[in-house]
Amino acid sequence: DRRGAGTDRLTGEREPALIPAPVYLERVRNLPEIERVGAKLIPSPPEWTRVVTELKAGVKPLAHQAARYRATSEINDRGCAMMVAIAVQTGERIDEMRHMRDVDIGEDEVRVVAYEGWTPKRHRERAIPVPKGTVKLARQFVAWRDGARGLNGADIALGEGWINDRLDEAWARLKVGDPTPRMHDCRRT
């Protein structure tokens, strides 16, 4: 580990804890999972808050890059941060967020609804109760996602690779140790 802190692979606990919190859930051990790929420890909501802040800061563009590249990069950094924040707050899968429509966002809920040949995992449609702030964020995310463009002007494919690369960068900048969380860990949190 970069800072001398590590993860005890037998007990599944971080030493030292990344963010000390007087919450009983911090002392609950994770249940063992079968055939899980990715982080063995699930970040807490305060840890995700730090990750979202780091994602919003983004990677600083090079000084010689054109202003339009810097603006596009900043917009996409915010979009990435919104995606992670919504996933943590709703428990939605990345594919469900890719298919979220403005009509699926209510006053106090976000609905996962099948449409136009797409269905949620196991065909389970559901309504997720959320606070007003998450509703506003979900609407902003849908607006960004529908117009998201890369630096080359092409549409961004919001896949696991794109978001996990950005998670890796943000987690490394936070210098909190391994393992790096994956997008699906937002759901698990």
Q: Globular, elongated, flat, extended or rod-shaped: what is the shape?
A: globular
Tally of DSSP β-strands: 4
Mean pLDDT: 76
The low-confidence runs, each spanning 5 or more residues with pLDDT under 50, are 1-6, 16-26
Strand order of the largest sheet: 1-2
Largest sheet: 2 strands, antiparallel
Strand content: 5-15%
The total count of helices amounts to 6
Report helical residue fraction. Answer: 40-55%
- Intertermini distance: 23 Å
Question: In angstroms, what is the radius of gyration?
Answer: 18 Å
- The H/E string reads EEHHHEEHHH
Please identify the structural class as seen in this structure.
Answer: mainly alpha
Q: How is this structure best described in words?
A:
By secondary structure, the chain is mainly alpha-helical. Helix content is about 40%, strand content about 5%. It is built from six helices and four strands. It has helices at about 45-55, 65-90, 95-100, 130-145, 160-175, 185-189; strands at about 5-10, 15, 110, 125-130. The strands form two sheets. Strands 1-2 form a two-stranded antiparallel ribbon. A two-stranded antiparallel ribbon has the order 3-4. Strand 1 and strand 2 (about 15) form a beta hairpin. Helix 1 (about 45-55) runs antiparallel to helix 2, helix 1 (about 45-55) crosses helix 5 (about 160-175) and helix 2 packs across helix 4 (about 130-145). The radius of gyration is 18 Å and the shape is globular.
Any chance you could write out the topology, listing elements then pairs?
Blueprint: E1 6-8, E2 13-15, H1 45-57, H2 67-90, H3 94-98, E3 109-112, E4 126-129, H4 132-147, H5 160-174, H6 184-188
Antiparallel strand pairs: 1-2, 3-4
Helix pairs in contact: 1-2, 1-5, 2-4
